[in-house]
Write a structure and sequence with these properties.
Helix content is about 60%, strand content about 0%. By secondary structure, the protein is mainly alpha-helical.
Length: about 280
């Protein structure tokens, strides 16, 4: 970048963050202008100042926190126009590491390093090989939105998150193309933090194992009863009830076995999609 876009990016971001919020479902807890109470406490402690409510944060403190903990952390001044803003917005909303991971994944084959969320030499070098920053912004936003959709808090904040990412995409692409971006707007719910700690849990295979085991066990029992019937048949017609039991057991066992296999397929597929969305696969 020839000229830092930090202040312009922060001004857009602050519109998205809004003012003081403390939604019971927001994992960020008490937050003002995007700065959580936890981050504010650490900032003031580092300056040797006493703790106070984030409601009282000043704009000078806001800009200093964003400059040190977010813009510098993602190396904003070394990122292409538009990409700098998109990565910054994701860092404030979901954490620096998560936002850099979205960028690394969006770089695809151009990035040869590990997906580790560290804005290091490999990531910056990969960025230099990308010519179409519009497309890169699209990929980052697609990955980010898919991530947010797999959080437990999506039903509460999904509408706001989707609107925010859509606007971030539009602004980022405008800057990447040298155009004047739209005016940022506040979307209720879009300011909620979207952390990986609040991701959905992948379905386990316990049900599949139990059903499969029951199906196999039932089939074995049916076979045992069938053998008993074969021994009794020459002696008495009283073994007819065994035939009915064998038929029922065989049907139930087949259903249990099929259900267990079906659930395992579903759970494996669901877990794979979740891992892909969260970047843990």
């Amino acid at each position: 970048m020839a000229v830092s876009r930090e202040r312009a990016s922060l001004d857009k971001l602050l519109v998205h963050e809004g003012g003081y919020v403390n939604h019971p479902s927001d994992p960020g807890g008490p937050t003002n202008k995007g700065v959580t109470q936890r981050v504010y406490d650490a900032y003031r402690k580092g300056k040797g100042q006493r703790a106070r409510s984030v409601k009282s944060i000043t704009m000078d403190e806001v800009y200093e926190i964003y400059d040190r903990q977010y813009w510098d952390a993602v190396k904003g001044d070394q990122l292409p126009d538009g990409v700098d803003y998109v990565v910054l917005d994701g860092a404030v909303n979901s954490g620096v590491r998560q936002s850099v991971m979205w960028l690394q994944r969006a770089l695809g084959a151009a990035y040869k390093g590990r997906i580790d969320g560290s804005m290091g030499f490999s990531t910056l070098e990969a960025l230099k090989t990308v010519n179409n920053h519009d497309a890169l912004v699209d990929r980052i936003c697609d990955i980010r939105l898919n991530f947010l959709r797999h959080l437990k808090t999506w039903p509460v904040f999904g509408k706001g998150w989707a609107a925010r990412v859509s606007e971030v995409r539009s602004i980022g692409k405008a800057w990447a193309s040298g155009e004047k971006p739209q005016i940022a707007s506040f979307m209720d719910g879009g300011q909620a933090k979207g952390f990986i700690e609040d991701a959905n849990t992948a379905p386990g295979n316990g049900v599949a194992d139990a059903a499969t085991g029951a199906g196999i066990g039932g089939g074995g029992l049916a076979g045992t009863l069938q053998g008993l019937q074969d021994q009794l048949t020459p002696l008495s017609y009283s073994s007819e009830w065994i035939t009915k039991v064998v038929v029922v057991l065989s049907l139930v066992s087949a259903l249990m076995l099929a259900g267990g296999i079906g659930w395992r397929w579903y759970a494996t597929r669901k877990a794979a999609r979740l891992a892909q969305a969260l970047g843990t696969g």
